[in-house]
Amino acid sequence: MLYYPVFLNLKNKKAVVIGGGSVAERKAQTLLSCNADVSIISPKITPRLRRLAKEGKIEYIKKSYEDKDIKDAFIVVAATNDRGINEAIYKTAERYGCLLNIVDKPESSNFIVPSVISRGDLTIAISTGGRSPALSKQIRKELQQIYGREYEIFIKTMGKIRGMLLRSVSSEKARRRILTKLAKAQSGMIGLLKKGKKMEFYKEIERIADISIK
Known about the structure:
Blueprint: E1 14-18, H1 22-33, E2 37-41, H2 47-54, E3 59-61, E4 75-78, H3 83-96, E5 99-102, E6 115-119, E7 122-126, H4 133-146, H5 150-168, H6 172-184, H7 186-194, H8 198-209
Parallel strand pairs: 1-2, 1-4, 2-3, 4-5
Antiparallel strand pairs: 6-7
């Protein structure tokens, strides 16, 4: 395996996106959703990026790329179609030790972005190591049908139960046994949520965990 799977905490980390087109917009929005401090470097940007900058959600620096632009960056995304600029970004990121993704050029990146499914706190990432992004997207679509929005409720409830058990059950082994039982029973409980039977779902949680949810 060439890549090491990892989930990064980007909160308040400096993220620089070079480029102002639709791809840059998509990358910037993803970084923004992870609470990164996003800066865009480009002579031109999309209307959506301009609106985000006007709202103060991102920083827009209207100019062409210079090496100094990524000096203090934690993570850099190069979303340009200029091979010369991409090569310059690659060399500078290597020198500064930045995390770098050059869109559509994994061989010049030190990380790649997987295809992602998000269901609240549940995140599923799919990667083909940069070999076939189209296949990653297809697998994502298939998994989206399996892991619906019901999992958002289920995971949130599991977190609540875990907190309650930490306060009320002193034995780690006992807590783990209850949480494992709940995880194994997820199929039936997800089925209840799919049918809109939330009350039945919570009753089943209480029965298995032997705990009252308030």
